User: Fold these one by one.
Assistant:
Number 1:
Amino acid sequence: MSLIEVDNLSVTYSAKGRAVRAVQEVSLSVAHGESYGLVGESGSGKSTILRAICGLAPVSGGSIRIGGEEVPTPRGKRFASRVQMVFQDPYASLHPRHTIDSILSEPLAIHGMGDSDALVRRALSDVGLPANFRFRYPHQLSGGQRQRVAIARALMLAPPILLLDEPTSALDASVQAEVLNLLNRLRAERNLTFLMVSHDLAVIDHMCDRVLVMQHGRAVEELTRDALARAEMTTAYARSLFDASADRMLGAL
Amino acid sequence: MGALRAWLADPNPGSRRQARLGQWWLGWLRLRRNPLAMSGLLIVGALLLIAALAPWIAPHDPVTQDLSRRLLPPGTPGNWLGTDDFGRDILSRILYGARITLYIVSLVALTAPVLGLLMGTVAGYFGGWVDSVLMRITDIFLAFPRLILALALVAVLGPGIENAVLAIALTAWPPYARVARAETLTVRNSDYIAAVRLQGAGVARIIAGHVVPMCLPSVIIRVTLDMAGVILIAAGLGFLGLGVQPPMPEWGLMISSGRKYLFEQWWVSTMPGLAIFIVSLGFNLLGDGLRDVLDPKSAPK
């Protein structure tokens, strides 16, 4: 049984009286411990799928199941302790007036978990941040450090599933590699399941076992990592995406 | 003292308590660097001190009349700021009046912004029909001239300080609601609010813990800027016989009682007017300084 199952998901926004169909009948399933990628150009609906799973986008059709259960609306605390998300922009995802300590202890307070002092300390060291960052404000940190805080926050409740919305696209190349390696290490250590969005096939190739190529809100093609490495895509769109980033992928291999 | 200062200024605090006290200490240092804010603090501090010590520092009883010494000019020995039309010492009345002013100002400052923040953040956060209903109520309160609405309320509830405060608070909150709603609209769709919602937080927690801190600085600025207006409205109500009742030494009441003598005995109105001016100035300067302190982004790295 798959851990995450999305069946015929459609998301429709209404903007100025017009219906914008951001996602149309996309299905995917992610096994326990797997890392699954969503790739496509901007506006292809890949981030919207993550937001729909979290209840941040209006689902107009289809179903979302976590561990075989339909997700409730509103998502609630039980969902929160099973699925967490890392947002794209680390400059916008941390509260500017809260210290790192209060950002990290907030989920513990919401779920009534004690001993937040020790848990916050451990969370910081797990993502490779020095302990003296604890009482700083987000504006005193660099982009990469902020994203580490965001990852630490997502892992405070020890959820088995992490949704990653282009977690490195706002960072420069060297920091990008550090954060991706951190995510891979955490996945290995904690047996996490990743559902990751990126517009960069090189990042997906580095991180994911399987990848779904999306265009205009529809699924185009699903590829395994081996098929990606051997460039065995069947659709022209997936091939054009591959060609655009092939040289960097070969560099990474 | 040096050890305490080092403990407070430690860049790597060991506990939450130390970190919080350190933040307060940093805020105080930032406030202290701003000479205008410090003079504001000094004025507000002096007001507090005067209000607390009025019975001991006032040279005369503020309500005892002495008709043989009425309308004496400032500089008269024994009545350094002069006397009013009943021969009461103006200095003593101003010193005692600080108590009433402080009482009104602090009650209004505690109630109106809280109500405004609540209405504004709830309206902004929920949007939709909640927003429409709450903001139309706000519009109705805004549409009334403030003094007229306060008059109507006092007329219904009866004159007195408490009712005057209630009337002022009920007419003072709509601007705070507007400010808070505008700020809320800019933050409610931000990723950090989405993140805390995703952690399973309830609405009350999100609003109180995550939205209100973003609205507070602009509301605090408005509160301090409005303090002068609050003192004047209280004075206006007193002038119309609906607020503080004579012979209580309220500054606004004192100004209005000196109206008849404005040209010949100018000091009767001018002295309490100066007191209002100085206190309003103090609140404004302090408010500006507080805004800088409350914004951690302005903190030294």
Number 2:
Amino acid sequence: MRRHSAWIVLLLIWSLAPMLWQLLTSFTTSAALVDGSIPFLQRWTLNHYRELLSSNPPFWRYLANSSMLAAMSTVLTTLLAIPAAYALTKIPKQWRQPVRFVVIAAALFPYVLLFLALLELARQFHLGNSLLALALPYSALQMPLALLLLTAAIEGLPVDLDDAARLEGLSLRQRLRWVMLPLIAPATASTAILVFLFAWNEYPIALTWLSRSDLLTLPVAMARIAGSSIYSVPYGAYAAATVLGAIPLLVLVLLFQRQIVRGLTNGAIKG
Amino acid sequence: MRNALRCLVAVLSTVFVLAGFAWSSGNRLTPVPVSILMPAPFADASKELVNRFNREHQGKIELTINRGPLETESISDLAISSLLLGDAPFDALMMDVTWLPKYVAAGWLEPLDRWFDSSDSEQLVQGARLGNRFENHLYRWPLVADVGVLYWRTDLMDVPPSTPDQLRSVALNLVQSSRVANGFVWQGRQYEGLSCDFVEVLHGFGGAWMSADQASTTLDTPAAKKAAAWLDSLIRDGASPRAVTNYAETESLQAFKAGDAAMMRNWPYAWAELQKPDSAVRGKVGITLMPAEQGEKPAATLGSWGISLLRESPHPEETVEAIRFLTSETSQRERFLDYGYTPTAEALFTDPELLAVSSALPDVRRALNHAVPRPPTPIYAQLSDVLQRQLNGLFTSGGSATETMDEAQIRSETLIRSAGGMA
Amino acid sequence: MALIFGWPLLRYAWLSGHADSVLTGLVPVANGGANWLRLLSDQRFWVDALQTARFGVVSVGIELILAMAIALLLDQRWRGRGAVRALTLMPWALPTTMMALGWRWIFNTPYGPIEQLAGSLGAGPLNLLSAPSLTWLVTVLADVWKTTPFIALILLAGLQTIPDDLYGAFRLEGGTSVQALRRITLPLLTPYILLSLLFRLAQAFGVFDLIQVLTGGGPAGSTESLALYAYLNAMRFLDFGYSATVMLGGFVLLMALIGLGALILRLSGLIRPLQT
């Protein structure tokens, strides 16, 4: 398939060039960024990374915050979504279609519009500045997608299986634990990955729920750097931050690309 | 799944333990912690002052400065989002002059009348006394003074223009005789700087943005229309480059500093920049007031930053002590000598040590005596947006100044009636 | 879920009938339909609505076409396909805010690579981030870059449900591959295209992160989106009643847009494959 290779190269350039430029920038001295005449060998530095890790709070703090928040949201969402999805597949037929419609509508809803009401909730119940509390809206926001993916997976299982297990005398709990879970494990993994990515990347809610600088998640911390004027953004340090922030995602995507693809495509087929 | 559950429990308990630690260690601190949010440049300029304050108040007060973003709007966003969440992590806040009414109306600020009296105010230069009060209470104490001024090239003219007509013809002459690339550079981009520029021109023509009782705007008056038409004619005739419609302070300064303009409207900070070795106009620059029609008082838009005490602060006394220290004459002197920030104390404007550093100080002081605030209303940001939109539209897409200002007036009035929904 | 999705909408409906701003001391006071009247005559709201729609339609349009091409490419069998697929996914996985600043650097005047390229070609400074006529295209580009992989994946899933025999049979009858694309691929892919269209349009309508960080709505408000305007009304102007009104108004417009799109599709007969 030689005739494709040109296109493949083009595709890779398109996808990766902006990130590679950031990588390059992150190793370039601040002076060289604005002065093209500096000789090639004097253009490189590790200072941006050093600066980033020694700033207050240090950059890894944001990574830790984001990881923790994303992990908590993922666990919470999956824990709630699996029984809920199971219940959804068991509701009477005439209800299934309207319920599915509502779930799809919720999944499509541009959630950024919710920020104001969520901010009010945070203020009312003193949920601000707590990563743990922030996992609650995240889980709720990702619930529709999780439900779609998981109901699709459960419906894909043979109907007899559940009945057979019931005849064996297994309780609902046992059926869920020993029959259902292992079978929908791949779908669960896909769901978990998608929820994790969402929580890792979410911005507007985190922006309004967190104000203490030591609690910021990665996207908000990034944007706060951007908040400074357009003329004084420390682009070198910033590019270094992009690189550090992208590494976990790169690993995640490379490890789980099969699950991500399957998760998206499953949801697509059923949705 | 069981693993995941275990994970969650582990994470939860870690969080609680950590929270416990944070709480107990917080109780052990003896000095009263006071923190103030400032834009990055001010925070950096306060470093030594803070160290000295903490030395002097060892064991009693521990002052920290939260270094906020650099841009005015961003730091306001940060402050507001903290305040809306209901647990602002600071005791005081550095405030731009235009935010004050909004913050007061939101109920976030504590009046400072208890601590600062008229004898304190009398020490201040005229322009620094403005913009600190709202609804008969003092809510802000100024840290630096700031007003809009006109920069002119002493090598291109003997005296600066004092009326709008003079300014235009001087600029046109210089451009047409090719003695300079551009005549007059200012801030024509659709942003707050345009409103500041317009206020000066508007007052120069004898107009005002709002009526004296702040109940309505007066943007459709003949003076306002003349002001808009004059600015528009500068661009149309070539007295100002077309590019000013996209200029902010930085771009204007760049052009003027490179020697590409005969006059510039900007803030006093530009002076130091123009005297640097890489400036093409070093030693060839004068400062004066923006022009005004014969018989009208020239005006200088009031900028300036000050510090406000937050109502929720648990330590108002200690915070005010820190505010007093940071705004003291000694601190002002240092900030001026080390960083070039304009002082607020009247006495410092005649201080030989300061005059030796900047010969422009008397001119800045004169401008400060002509300071004009922008409308002190909680909905200022929206009003200003309306004006910027209309003016920039006039400059970039044509139309008549009369229609533009009529429209600006209608939109402003609608806004005043409906903003905040007070039907 | 009901709390997170239902409550806000009810709350907005309630707030939009109230004055809740600095002028009321942040206490809601009923004001009849004043917020809605203001919305109707608010130039900025309608300009932003148009800009949001422009952004959404143009970027989703480009994304669909590009994604289609990418999906067709990835649907072929060649070595290293898995790795390429994973790498093309990267833009989608990165936080929007993170790359938004990256774009700001890439499009920086005069130091960014695009300006330097333009400069060396003699195209002069483009001022990509300070020219109202150009900057919105930069936001479109950034969005296309980020979300095309996502659509491509959904389309790829669709492509893989089409049996290869179908193409074989078509070729036997003497059809060219372009004809095959039109007669087989596109009709069978329609549900997937519609799904991604709907999903992306709804998301693009709520565009916020990208705009806020990349341009802040500027220059001169030329890239401001409805979500950003609602955010500014709440967080900068402290006018919660009106912010809620803007959000609800935007939502109504989105519904109208989707309804209109569905109507056009139905009339043009494109939607039929979905129902079978």
